Amino acid sequence: MNNLTPDVFNGLFEFIGGCFLCLNIKNLYKDKVLRGVSWLPTVFMSSWGAWNLYYYPSLNQWWSFYGGLWIVTVNTVWLGMILYYYLKKRKTINFSSKNNFDTADGDLQITVVSDGETKVRSLSNRELKKITSERSNIINQMVGEGYRRISK
């Protein structure tokens, strides 16, 4: 037990903490989306971890340094994955109208582009009249879910 210095003890805590943080990476890789957890605390804790990468060597605490390096690495990978999946998830909807909505043959054409796939759905004038009051709510909800609105 003589070799279990505060540096070794702290370094082991940090290393084990990094191993537990790997569960975040595993779950995010499986789910491909972050839900129910904010990424902001991890940004803050990673910045503190980056400070520790300077601080520990100044105290000659090399076990803590390597444990801290492990945590900063795992957190950085996790944050990078969040950004990657967020950007990949973004979808695009193009709203364009053919003819006039008041004419019998007018319709709204909705194009959804996601992961290189394009899907087109046309709503007839009759369908449009039925959902006109709900349309803006649906669009706002879709924008909130990561869709980008492109006006034509």
Structural commentary:
The chain is of the alpha+beta class. The chain folds into two domains: 6-89, Up-down Bundle (Monooxygenase); 91-151, no CATH class. Helices cover 61% and strands 19% of the residues. The protein is built from four helices and four strands. The chain has helices spanning 6-31, 40-58, 62-89, 125-144, and strands at 91-98, 107-114, 117-124, 147-151. A hairpin with an 8-residue loop joins strand 1 (91-98) and strand 2. Helix 1 packs parallel to helix 3 and helix 2 (40-58) runs antiparallel to helix 3. The termini are far apart. The model is unreliable at 96-105 (pLDDT under 50).
Q: Keywords for this structure?
A:
4-stranded mixed beta sheet, 2 domains, 19% strand, rod-shaped, alpha+beta
